[in-house]
Amino acid sequence: MRVSITFVFHLLSIGTLMTTLVAGFILDRKIRREPDIHLKIYTAGLSKSIGLLSPVAAILLLLTGIANIHNRFLGYPSEWYSEGWLVAKIILYAVMVFNGMFYGPGLMRGRLKVLRSQAEQSAPTNADSQIRSYNTQITLFYAVQIMLFLLIVYISVFGTAKHPGAI
């Protein structure tokens, strides 16, 4: 069996994306348990730095996914959109990327803003309830992202056709 280089990069991109999800979730839990406000802010900064890997992973997944589709359907009479499992993967991936680009970063920035205002002693009176609200929304964000990721992996493994990276 021969495997294309794009398939190898696709797998590496999947690992990078999973790393950002798991690391972000772990750091989020660390922020919640940390009693020192300055360490919370520092940990949130680490989380932001690790989150910068997500767009790289998303772009690599997109490019290598397109290359894998090209490899899979090169010379075949059928079109790629006739494969239901592949269309489902693309839709789930698009939802995951949209959620990760627009919803997650806004939540992280909002919580960090409230944490910084608490550190500067200029927090609003309802800062604790704002933090609890952000924490609940961030938990939901990670739950949705991990669920989408696992659905994509499930469809990839148990799809109705051979994986597009294998030649």
SSE string, helices as H and strands as E = HHHHH
Which consecutive residue ranges, at least 5 long each, have pLDDT under 50? none
* Quantity of strands, as a count: 0
Measured distance between first and last alpha carbons: 7 Å
Number of domains: 1
> Helix count?
5
Which structural class do you get from the secondary structure elements?
mainly alpha
Proportion of helical residues = over 70%
Q: Overall mean pLDDT score?
A: 86
Q: What does the main sheet amount to?
A: none
Give the overall shape.
elongated
Q: What portion of the residues fall into strands of 2 or more residues?
A: under 5%
What's the SSE blueprint?
Elements: H1 5-33, H2 37-51, H3 53-73, H4 84-119, H5 127-158
Task: Explain this structure.
The protein is mostly helical. It has one domain. Helices cover 80% and strands 0% of the residues. The chain contains five helices and no strands. The longest helix has 36 residues. The termini are close together.
Quick gist of this model?
This protein has 5 helices and no strands. The protein has 167 residues and is mainly α. The chain has one domain.
